[in-house]
Amino acid sequence: MKKFIALTATLSFLISCGSSDRGELVGVRGKKWRPEKPYGMALVPGGAYIMGKADDDLANVQDAPAKTVTVRSFYMDETEITNSEYRQFVQWVKDSTIRTRLAILADEQGQKPGAGGIGEFAFKDQESTDKQSAYDKYMYENYYSIGTDDDMYAGRKLNHKAKLITDPQKYPDEYYVEVMDSMYLPESESFNGLRTIDVSKLVFRYSWMDIQAAAKDKSTKNTRAKRSKYMRNEQVEVYPDTTVWIKDFAYSYNEPMHNDYFWHDAYGEYPVVGVTWQKAKAFCAWRTLNKNTYQKAKKRQQINSFRLPTEAEWEFAARGGLASATFPWGGPYTKNDRGCFLANFKPNRGDYAADGALYTVEAKSYDPNDHNLYNMSGNVAEWTDSSYDASSYEYVSTMNPNVPDQSNKRKVIRGGSWKDVAYFLQVGTRDWEYADSARSYIGFRTVQDYMGTQNTGTNQ
Q1: 438, 110 Cβ separation under 8 angstroms
Q2: Bridge partners, residue 43, by sequence
Q3: CB–CB of 242/283 below 8 Å?
Q4: Which partner from 141, 200, 223, 432 sits 20 to 30 angstroms from 68, CA to CA?
Q5: Where is each Sulfatase-modifying factor enzyme-like domain found (predicted)?
Q6: Taking CA 64 as the corner, what is the angle to CA 329 and CA 61, rounded to the nearest 5 degrees?
Q7: pLDDT more than 70, % of the chain
């Protein structure tokens, strides 16, 4: 025993002498980290502001009494998420779905890389063992090959290096034809000579942890059991509901918007609509995954998550640093000194085009507010992460207030839209919609937490 203690002391002495800390408490030194502004986002410096109605509550809703709150710094998309940006998400899901189906069929047929055909899309663990790292071998033997009760292929890695073939005349074998055919609607359901993708097949799966509920759980001291108890698995059909252009307006001709708005390049820079709250959340999870996959490949530190803004964050950003403003540009008028409207909304009864636009406009239209954020009022209303409660301003915290009630399916939307009157464009006006509802006038934008606390603004 004495020999063991002596050896331990000697090793400790040698380790201390061989290190550069000179035996001092210097902390664990990692790579030097610098904040990186995400592409297409603006920094909103945190600070305090008066949340709620700045003017008289003309509608007498009485759900937004004035209250001073403080929010932390965050990045926010300069524009609403556009059709083009959301199509990148849809294309990624489509690509992954096809690769998954090809890999499963290759697995069932015993096809492997090197023989050509569908085998080139087999799961990565089907590569010869001499090409696998020790890590991949271990993970396959202990995790990937096991699967789950719900999905026997859970955890297995797709081969993203093999290029998908889109020309039907160049499909490599009958198995590839079978997979591609399964992704489209039957010939009997096609028209105008075009085969249409079956959008119900475009499903994004992701997991998240309900930290709020887990942190408040006092029922067990077993941390691991608690953690698994609050893991949530989501499966979301990602394609927007294009029928909203017809369903939202009875006795109205809006078929052109239904047919072309989402997929045609003419509307690429217009805000995406027909997206439920769940689809907006799925987009945030995908955007985080997509960026962190790149970060990992470049051996860089991972970023924190993209997410929907809380209601307080949205209003703070919309005000653009203007204290007690009615609109993002100040107010109280919706026209500038030249008589031009400052947002896309419905100025007059039935006259949707009085502001120069019948439906939506491009996401980067009109002048931005002082945080360089476009269309915080008008164009499309925007989902927030907060649940709606008419009395929430009475009980929420004055620091980063939010109502993350998972059981409340009424979610706050803000900013008003192209079909709303000016009242809904006011930065203090609250509105809501059910989380599973899609509308032709609701879109969203995302935020990301700023890492650190030094970047704060003054009182607003």
Answers
A1: no
A2: 75
A3: no
A4: 432
A5: 40-104, 229-447
A6: 105
A7: 87
Q: How far, in Å, CA of 383 to CA of 272, rounded?
A: 12
Q: Tell which residue, 291, 246, 234, 304, has the closest CA to residue 273.
A: 246
Sign of CA dihedral 182, 185, 190, 194: negative
**Is the distance from CB of 46 to CB of 457 less than 8 angstroms?**
yes
Please give the Cα distance from 174 to 280 (Å, whole number): 37
d(CA 427, CA 254): 29
Q: Do 203 and 209 meet the contact criterion of CB atoms below 8 Å apart?
A: no
> Cα(460)–Cα(98) distance, rounded to whole angstroms?
50
Confirm if 78 and 44 have CB atoms less than 8 A apart. no
pLDDT tens sequence across 255-295: 999 999 999 999 999 999 999 999 999 999 999 999 999 99
Q: Is 33 helix (H, G, I), strand (E, B) or coil?
A: coil
Radius of gyration of the chain (CA): 27
Q: Are 445 and 74 in contact (CB under 8 A)?
A: no
DSSP assigned state of 239: S
Count of CB atoms situated within 10 Å of the CB of 289? 15
Closest C-alpha among 360, 378, 354, 359 to residue 427:
378
**CA pair distance 120, 143, nearest whole angstrom:** 23
HSE-CB of 46 using CA atoms within 13 angstroms: 16
pTM exceeding 0.85: yes
- Partners of 194 in the beta sheet? 191
- Name the stretches of the chain with pLDDT < 70: 1-19, 126-132, 135-151, 155, 220-225, 453-460
Q: Which residues pair with 209 in a beta bridge?
A: 231
Domains of the chain: 1-79+238-460 (3.90.1580.10), 84-235 (no CATH)
pLDDT, tens digit, 9 for 90 and up, residues 418-427 = 999 999 999 9
For 383-432, give the DSSP string: EEEEEP-TTHHHHS-SBS-----TT--EEEEES--TTS-GGGGSTT--EE
Structure tokens at 200: 């119900």
